[in-house]
Design a protein that fits this description.
Largest sheet: 5 strands, parallel
Helix content: 40-55%
Number of helices: 16
CATH class of the largest domain: Alpha Beta
Length: 390
């Protein structure tokens, strides 16, 4: 048999894709069933014509840059855990100072942005400072401002972050790293709602919503004296964001969100994540949380041709998708097969509909399936037609 010719084996047919450069998968696979007759000559010719058309379409799509229409318009940046999202909506309406607790990479800054966006201050500024990056000797001058002549180089009066955020919101990331003496001054700012610049006696009234965050064990830090108890209790609201390994159901939505986000930034077409690759993502512990997942998706998309398969994932993530019970041949087959609507489970569809609040148009974009396919799956799984609507 000549190279490039279709291969038929009973009810199975492999038709190679010809003249495809730098493309990882190279054949069209057709299957009639175990008891069907083998493919006839006309069927083989038709399949060959289809591959020629498919190659042209794919090659053309690969040369084009992705446009806004290729991506889902996600309604919010904070994706996933509904309990956390409800808490964010609740505290945003209170105009109260908020402390966000969680491991590195869980999305504390994204949560702060969401609180500001949903608050009455959404049209005002949000200033951000990472307390772990502030030079110890400059902490107070940067946060609270200084008077001319306060130190060498202070040639004029200057506002600090709190004055610059007046009327809006200030986000203090990693507040657990704030020096003890600066914690005392911050406490006075929260209590009196006024700020005093360095080397100045005059105080200035400010109207600021303070959102702080830390990845420290804040209770332990209070016990050891590293963090002031009274400062902790001055934050009227606390939000705890669980690590990603404790909210596995969020991974599919986050992965597709990052896929669209990276696609917009890079101009790369994203066509989805294979079933086996998603199994790896769901099994991996994600010690770096959502931040690590985003980096993983970004790297995978950059080396894939739009669809992320197992081989595009980092080695440490790949191994979590392989179990001893799985047949090696089946694993190999899954690695080169995108997730289809037949493989899409009831739980995944229900989660997506719940996220889109029952909007099926948004759901089919996220799931990357046809509208009729979604309706068929909902009927098969017994999912109510109005599922997800409030």
């Amino acid at each position: 048999m000549k190279k490039g010719q279709p291969i038929s084996n009973g009810g199975q047919l492999w038709v190679p894709f010809l003249k495809v450069k730098n493309w990882d998968f190279g054949f069209l696979y057709l299957y009639k069933g175990p008891y069907s007759q083998q493919f006839c000559e006309n069927e083989v010719k038709l399949a060959s014509i289809i591959t020629v058309i498919a190659v042209g379409l794919i090659d053309n799509a690969r040369r084009q840059k992705a446009s806004e229409e290729d991506f889902v318009r996600w309604p919010r940046a904070m994706i996933g855990n509904e309990a956390v999202l409800r808490e964010i909506e609740r505290v945003a309406s209170l105009n109260s100072n908020v402390l966000i607790l969680g491991e590195t990479g869980v999305g504390k800054e994204v949560a702060a942005d969401e609180i500001h966006r949903l608050s009455k201050r959404k049209e005002t500024v949000i200033r951000k400072r990472n307390c772990s990056n502030l030079p110890r000797e400059l902490v107070e001058s940067l946060l609270f401002g200084y008077k001319k002549g306060a130190f060498t180089g202070a040639t004029e009066d200057k506002k600090g972050e709190f004055e610059l955020a007046d009327g809006g919101t200030i986000f203090l990331d990693e507040i657990g790293d704030l020096p003890k003496e600066s914690q005392s001054k911050l406490l006075r700012v929260i209590q009196d709602k006024e700020v005093t610049r360095l080397h100045e006696e005059k105080s200035r009234k400010i109207d600021v919503m303070i959102i702080a965050a830390t990845n420290h064990d804040i209770q332990k830090n209070m016990e050891t004296g590293r963090f002031r108890n009274d400062l902790y209790y001055r934050f009227g609201e606390k939000i705890i964001i669980p690590p990603l390994r404790e909210r596995k159901k969020d991974i599919p939505l986050l992965a597709h969100y990052f896929l669209d986000e990276v696609g917009k930034e890079t101009g790369l077409h994203s066509r989805g994540i294979s079933h086996q690759a998603m199994k790896c993502l769901l099994s991996y512990p994600w010690h770096g949380n959502a931040r690590e997942l985003r980096e993983c998706i970004g790297k995978a998309l950059s080396i894939s041709k739009g669809v992320i398969f197992v081989q595009h994932l980092p080695n440490e993530v790949q191994k979590y998708g392989v179990t001893k019970k799985e047949d090696k041949k089946e694993d190999k087959k899954e690695e080169i097969k995108p997730k289809s609507s037949d493989n899409m489970g009831k739980e995944h569809i229900m989660e997506t509909l719940q996220y889109t609040r029952g909007n099926k148009e948004k759901a089919i974009k996220i799931l990357k399936i046809a509208k009729q396919t979604l309706h068929n799956r909902m009927d098969r799984f017994g999912i109510p037609k109005n599922y997800g609507k409030e």
